[in-house]
Amino acid sequence: MDVIVCVKHVPETAEAEIKISPEGKNIDKGGLVFDINEWDDYALEEAVRIKEKFGGLVTAVTIGDEAADSTLRKCLARGADNGIRVTDTRFEGSDGYVIAKILHKVIKDMTFNLILTGAQASDDGYASVGPMLAELLGVPHATMVNKIEIKGETSKVNRELEGGLQETDEIKLPALFTIQTGINEPRYVSIMGIRKAMQKETQILDLEAVGLTEGEVGESGSWIKVEKMYAPPLEKQAEFLKGTPEEIAKKVAQLLKAKGMI
């Protein structure tokens, strides 16, 4: 069972102070810590578990600069057999459609039974690359998958829907699934695994190697272009009431009366 996992090297912004870059089309990434995208982390773990159960190879593919090697090495340390990094400065500004085109060029001639991606990326949240890649490859796909059962040439998957509902689908392989968090518990990276990963060779491809032209990537090849990025303006500000409980209660009553609520 050969599995390809598409992973992304993203900044961790949950507890960081985010600033807009000078050109106004991205965030200032200076000083931010980067790691594997959370959803992709679960996709990688699921791929390794499938390999451990059925045999085969796991290949991790990422698009990014040299810094993305750390994410690729983490994939290798966690059980991936091969790593491919697609890198070129001309990819800058590519939207989800262009990313899907690049991945399609890399994957289309590879042998695979299954392709796994994260349900979305934490930096843009588009959740579009997986389905578009499946369409370009001409394989069936399912999104928001939180359970996979392989049975011969088919796979039964559970999908997470709105309102806590679940959907079960039977899909013929080869196929592409976008993975939801919680499908498994990603394993820790061992020191031995890291050492072995550092010794493995990874394949590096550029624009010409994947067979695309400059006009097909970046902003010129994208359907979506970022015009401006900014922090939302502060329209209302919380007012903190101070004083004794009696004084605060009186102020609350006055505010409610002033707003016409009592």
Outline of this structure?
With 262 residues, the chain is of the alpha/beta class.
What does this structure look like?
The chain has 262 residues and is an alpha/beta fold. It has a single domain, classed as Rossmann fold, CATH 3.40.50. The protein is 28% helix and 23% strand. It is built from seven helices and eleven strands. The chain has helices at 38-54, 69-77, 96-107, 129-137, 191-199, 207-210, 245-258; strands spanning 3-7, 9-11, 34-36, 58-63, 82-86, 114-118, 141-151, 154-160, 166-172, 175-179, 203-205. Strands 9-8-7-10-6-1-4-5-11 form a nine-stranded mixed sheet, with helices on both faces. It has a two-stranded antiparallel ribbon with strand order 2-3. Strand 8 and strand 9 form a beta hairpin. Helix 2 (69-77) crosses helix 5 (191-199) and helix 3 packs across helix 4 (129-137). The relative contact order is 0.17. The model has no long low-confidence stretch (mean pLDDT 93).
